[in-house]
Specification:
Elements: E1 2-6, E2 9-12, E3 17-24, E4 30-38, E5 45-51, E6 56-58, E7 66-71, E8 76-81, E9 90-98, E10 101-105, E11 109-114
Parallel strand pairs: 2-11
Antiparallel strand pairs: 1-3, 3-8, 4-5, 4-9, 5-6, 7-8, 9-10, 9-11
Length: 115
């Protein structure tokens, strides 16, 4: 399984961005896709997760502002981010939980929110 994340950029506070995570390879082994983020000097944290059954969960800090969704025919998971705040600035990563195998990380995409 390979994951390709994209969509980061520079946005003003209050703005929006949509991140994409395209999966390839043995995608049938994936049981969930998560978005994590890591801000400078901080630990990586889970932001949102969507399972193969469509169940979602979010970090409290992003509830009501971020939405995770998937497009199965495109093997893509999205993270729609609205009402962005400077504290959302981080490198965002997608991560695949796999059945009977270790998880896989995608490369990061940088999101910078200016005040």
């Amino acid at each position: 399984v390979q994951l390709q994340a994209s969509g980061g950029g520079l946005v003003q506070a209050g703005g929006s961005l949509r991140l994409s995570c395209v999966t390839s390879g043995s995608v049938s082994s994936i049981i969930a896709i998560s978005w994590y983020r890591q801000a400078p000097g901080k630990q990586r944290e889970m932001v949102a997760r969507i399972t193969s059954g469509g169940f979602t969960n979010y970090a409290d800090s992003v509830k009501g502002r971020f939405t995770i969704s998937r497009d199965n025919p495109k093997n893509t998971v999205y993270l729609e981010m609205n009402s962005l705040k400077p504290e959302d600035t981080a490198v965002f990563y997608c991560y695949a939980d796999r059945r009977y195998a270790s998880g896989v990380w995608g490369q990061g995409t940088l999101v910078t929110v200016s005040s």
